[in-house]
Each structure stands twice: as C-alpha cells, then as structure tokens.
Design a protein that fits this description.
The chain has helices at about 15-25, 65-80, 110-120, 150-160, 175-185, 225-235, 255-260, 290-305; strands at about 5-10, 30-35, 40-45, 50-55, 85-90, 125, 140-145, 165, 185-195, 200-205, 215-220, 240-250, 265-270, 285-290. Helix content is about 30%, strand content about 25%. By secondary structure, the protein is α/β, with parallel strands linked by helices. It has 2 domains: about 5-145 and about 290-310, Rossmann fold; about 150-290, Rossmann fold (3-Layer(aba) Sandwich). It contains 8 helices and 14 strands. A 7-stranded mixed beta sheet has the order 10-9-8-11-12-13-14, with helices on both faces. Strands 1-4-5-6-7 form a 5-stranded parallel beta sheet, sandwiched between helices. β4 (about 50-55), α2 (about 65-80) and β5 (about 85-90) form a beta-alpha-beta unit.
C-alpha cells in the first residue's frame, strides 16, 4: 500500500475531485457506465495492484444505480488485487431502515453493509449515519465522521443572539446537544410521530423554551422537507423570532425545494455529501463542503494516524 489512489463512480464526481485537490493527487482513472440493457460495467484504467484504494460514492439518487455502481467498483478493485479497499460513502442510503419496527419488514441497512463487505470493501468511511448503531452491522472497520464542527463554525460566524438549538425529534437529540454545547446555546426537542410508512409526520409538542429566541433546528438529513416545514411552523407558533435549519445530507426529494422556498425558515444549511443539481438550488439553501473533512480522514487512514483525533 505504498501509493494512495482515489476513484469515483457517477454519484458525486465533483466531491471526489475536491477531495483529491485537498490531498494533492489526481483522481484515479476508470470507466463506469451503463449498457443499453441497464447493466453496470466498470473498467479500471490504471494499475492498482497492492495500492491503497478509496472509492468515493454516496448512495444517493438514483439510489439503486449508485449502490450497484459502488458494488461493481469494489468487486473490480478486489479482482485487480488492490492492497486495501475503502468504500467512502458520504451518504449511506437505506440507513433509515435500520430495525424491525413493524412485522415482516427488512433491515436494509444491514443488507447494504453485507453487500459492501462481500463486494470487497476492507473498511468504510462515512458521514453522520442515521443511527450510529449501523456501524455494528459491519464486520469490517467503520469510521464515521461528523459534519457538526463544520456546521457549528458557520453558525458561530453568524453571531446569532439568544439562540436555542432544536432537535427535530428525540432520536437526533444527542447530535443536537453537541451542536448546542458547541454554540453555547440552550436545547429544545420536538416530539413528533410518523404516520405509517408515508413520508409525512405529525409534530406533537415542543419540549423546551423557544419563545423570543432564534431557533436552529438540527437533523441528519432533509428528505421531502415536510417534517422540517412542520417543525418550523410549530416553533414560530410557540414564539420563536426566527428559525434556521441545518442538516448534513440534503436529499431534497419530491417537492422539498418548493416547500423550503415557501416556508418562513430563514436559511437551511447543509453539506455536499450528495450532489445538488440546479433544480435543487435555492437562495436560502447554503451548502458547505466536506471535502477537507473527507480528505483529512483519507490521509489519516492511509498513513495510520488516528481519525478520532480530528474531533478532539
């Protein structure tokens, strides 16, 4: 493993290029395309024998195509005798299906973990999993980074007075508490209930004092933005003067952008773990880059340094 190599599929080549710029190395050369019969094909265009290979590929829209591309790439590198293969998955798709919360349903987050391992990954590097327990689904090392420090640095620069950090549900309260501690702010929690398997929730109660304060909602991802809009409305109804929102993963599916545009939310701050195309861009959506975070983690993994020390 005397040489570091970074490759990417078609899910987010711009992020992979920015990571390579941070590392000061060229992006690895390979072909990843789909035949007319929709079969994915991969051809590596340079020698990777005994190299330390990192494959940057979020499992994002189109989710199933991105996942299969990643699996086929891992298999190709394994068969090309790469020394070590790290799957760099900034956004871990299917992560929300992480337990059996209904009868006769799958645990797809575990299935994806098994697929990545079987395909040839020797370790995984990811960012802000939906549930930290997903690390335990793997039998290989998993390094989970967090974008909390990047997001907090941005909001410290805004110098918002009388700030209260709001967890959008009880499950995200630990991450929200970390954000609140970093910003020296109070903490509140929104209690909500999901309605069946539909992409909709019902906000029930705000636990904590938000009246007369600037609120900052914290979540791991924004999907349809229905939950976000509901939380914003609930906070304003309870006396919040302004509401900002932050999340690591801007999935923004369906009518999410339209909902955010028409919502009274002041600003939505996200990172570039997934690619935001032109139709998903909006003046009130601010995108922060995680390329330096991923680049530093890749450097540390390659050289045998501590990844955890990045957050101490």
């Amino acid at each position: 493993m005397d040489e570091l190599k970074v490759f990417t599929g078609n899910a987010h080549p711009r992020l992979a290029g920015a990571v390579c710029d941070y590392l000061g190395i060229p992006l690895g050369k390979c072909e990843v395309f789909e035949f007319s019969n929709e079969n994915i094909f991969v051809r590596i265009l340079e020698n990777v024998r005994q190299r330390d290979v990192f494959v940057v590929q979020p499992i994002c829209s189109p989710v199933n195509k991105s996942l299969v591309e990643l699996l086929v790439m891992l298999d190709a590198f394994k068969r090309a005798s790469a020394g070590r293969i790290t799957a760099v998955v900034p956004y871990y798709g299917y992560g929300r299906t992480d337990k059996k919360d209904q009868p006769r349903v799958p645990i797809t987050a575990r299935l994806v973990a098994d697929l990545l391992t079987t395909a040839g990954a020797n370790r995984v590097l990811t960012v802000d999993l939906h549930a930290p327990q997903i690390q335990g689904f793997f039998t290989i090392p998993v390094d989970e980074l967090t974008a909390v420090s990047i997001i907090c640095q941005y909001f410290r620069g805004k110098r918002l007075a009388d700030l209260v950090v709001v967890a959008t549900d009880i499950g995200i309260s630990k991450r929200a508490r970390d954000v609140a501690a970093s910003l020296g702010a109070a903490l509140a929690i929104v209690e909500k209930r999901r309605i069946g398997n539909a992409d909709s929730t019902e906000a029930l109660n705000v636990i904590g004092d938000v009246s007369g304060r600037v609120a900052l909602t914290v979540d791991d991802e924004i999907d349809t933005a229905g939950s976000l809009v509901g939380v914003v409305d609930a906070l304003l109804a309870r006396g919040a003067t302004e509401v900002y929102a932050c999340a690591t993963h801007p999935i923004l599916s369906g009518k999410a952008v339209e909902r955010i545009a028409s919502s009274p939310v002041k600003e939505v701050v996200v990172t570039d773990t997934v690619s935001l195309n032109g139709d998903k861009k909006l003046d009130k959506i601010t995108v922060l880059s995680i390329s330096s975070l991923l680049g530093e983690a890749i450097h540390r993994i390659h050289t045998g340094l501590s990844v955890g020390a990045m957050f101490e």
